[in-house]
UniProtKB/TrEMBL annotation:
It is an enzyme of class 2 (transferase). One of its GO terms (biological process) is positive regulation of transcription by RNA polymerase II. This is [histone H3]-lysine(4) N-methyltransferase. GO terms for cellular component: MLL3/4 complex. It catalyses: L-lysyl(4)-[histone H3] + S-adenosyl-L-methionine = N(6)-methyl-L-lysyl(4)-[histone H3] + S-adenosyl-L-homocysteine + H(+). Keywords: Chromatin regulator, Metal-binding, Methyltransferase, Nucleus, Repeat, S-adenosyl-L-methionine, Transcription, Transcription regulation, Transferase, Zinc, Zinc-finger. Residues 168-276 form the PHD-type domain. The keyword NAD does not apply. Its EC number is 2.1.1.364. GO terms for molecular function: histone H3K4 monomethyltransferase activity; transcription coactivator activity; zinc ion binding. It comes from Stercorarius parasiticus (Parasitic jaeger).
Length: 400
């Protein structure tokens, strides 16, 4: 048997048990290696080494001619680390076992780990992030706001407040509910208790005019006349905007006049479709938004008196944070003691007010105020109603 090992001088060393036995007995020469294919080389040289084990004969093998390297081949896929890659040779050839040493990983914080990134690593270590937007061919309609809101509502990813309750206030002229468009009927103005009118519905009535301070005069007069007039467009009562052509009886609601394509002018006049000029007019008004301060002129004293004198009140009278419940009464024998130079103190008066709490900062509670009689004199009572606490009653002989 023959064993083959690699030496640093690229030579093969042959170990033969038979030759080693002959050297120990007969001191004969070691048989030479098989004849090299190259006959031009010098004869083989014998080198003898001795160690503690035995005497070895070392023969230098002839060097092979250098061959031209073949063209570059595709990269070789090596097996994973820590595994032996066994290469099987053809018959009559040597079997060689190659072990691949694992590549040492860079220690965090070392000099090799701190090398600056270079473009030579592109495709291997890092890649650029690119965004590509593909627009489909053909007609693409982006989703609208309502579709997006509906989709988000199904997902349940948004928090929305409760929807605002529907506005049931109705205009006395055009009979439409809620505030109108700014470039249309506009906002609602209070005319009387639970009576509302659109700003432009009242402003464009024939009898109504506007003062320098923004007060609308004769709104109630226009309303009484409108209850008997029928609109030429919708055939409903409440029409107050008439055509300014002489002897023309066409009359409309303000909203119906816009739908009927009547012509409005800057001097607050209107012409119906039968009498309006053809084409455009320099004095024509096409924008109806009113951003100035406008209010309905009314007698508030008479309005409050009518509210108080009603027997059964179906409405709540509120001024700011003060809610009025009952006005009370004064008998003739009480007039002397139940008034001052600035106020009256009727017995049975009751109102409630929402005001800041006496116990907690930044919290409001309800104060129920009333006037009672005690020993012929007024007694002012305030009941503090606050959630989580018992009602606190405060009394005194003066309002302060």
């Amino acid at each position: 048997t023959k064993d083959i090992v690699f030496c640093s001088n690229n030579c093969f060393v042959l170990y033969s048990a038979a030759v080693q036995a002959k050297n120990s007995e007969n001191k004969e020469s070691v048989p030479s290696l098989p004849q090299s294919p190259m006959k031009d080389r010098p004869p083989k040289a014998f080198h003898q080494y001795s160690n503690n084990i035995s005497t070895l004969d070392v023969h230098c093998l002839p060097q092979l001619q250098e061959k031209v390297s073949p063209p570059s081949s595709p990269p070789i896929m090596f097996p994973p680390a820590f595994e032996a890659a066994k290469v099987e040779a053809k018959p009559d050839e040597l079997k060689v076992t190659v072990k691949l040493k694992p590549r040492l990983k860079a220690i965090h914080g070392s000099l090799d780990d701190c090398r600056p990134p270079s473009k030579k690593w592109k495709g291997m270590k890092w890649k650029k992030w690119s965004i590509q937007i593909v627009i489909p061919k053909g007609s693409f309609k982006p989703p609208g706001e309502e579709e997006i809101d509906e989709f988000l509502k199904k997902l349940g990813t948004t928090l929305k407040p409760d929807p605002v309750p529907k506005d049931y206030r109705k205009c006395c002229f055009c009979h439409e509910e809620g505030d109108g468009l700014t470039d249309g009927p506009a906002r609602l103005l209070n005319l009387d208790l639970d009576l509302w009118v659109h700003l432009n519905c009242a402003l464009w009535s024939t009898e109504v005019y506007e003062t320098q301070a923004g007060a609308l005069i004769n709104v109630e007069l226009a309303l009484r006349r409108g209850l008997q007039m029928k609109c030429m467009f919708c055939h409903k009562m409440g029409a107050t905007s008439g055509c300014h052509r002489l002897r023309c009886t066409n009359i409309y609601h303000f909203t119906c006049a816009i739908k009927a394509q009547c012509m409005f002018f800057k001097d607050k006049t209107m012409l119906c479709p039968m009498h309006k000029p053809k084409g455009t007019h320099e004095q024509e008004l096409s924008y109806f938004a009113v951003f100035r301060r406008v209010y309905v002129q009314r007698d508030e004293v008479r309005q409050i008196a009518s509210i108080v004198q009603r027997g059964e009140r179906d409405h709540t009278f509120r001024v700011g944070s003060l809610i009025f419940h009952a006005v009370g009464q004064l008998l003739p024998q009480q007039m002397q003691a139940f008034h001052s130079s600035k106020a009256l103190f009727p017995v049975g008066y009751e109102a409630s007010r929402l005001y800041w709490s006496m116990r907690y900062a930044n919290r409001r509670c309800r104060y129920l105020c009333s006037i009672e009689e005690k020993d012929g004199l007024p007694l002012f009572v305030i009941k503090v109603v606050e959630q989580g606490h018992e009602d606190l009653v405060l009394t005194d002989t003066t309002p302060k």
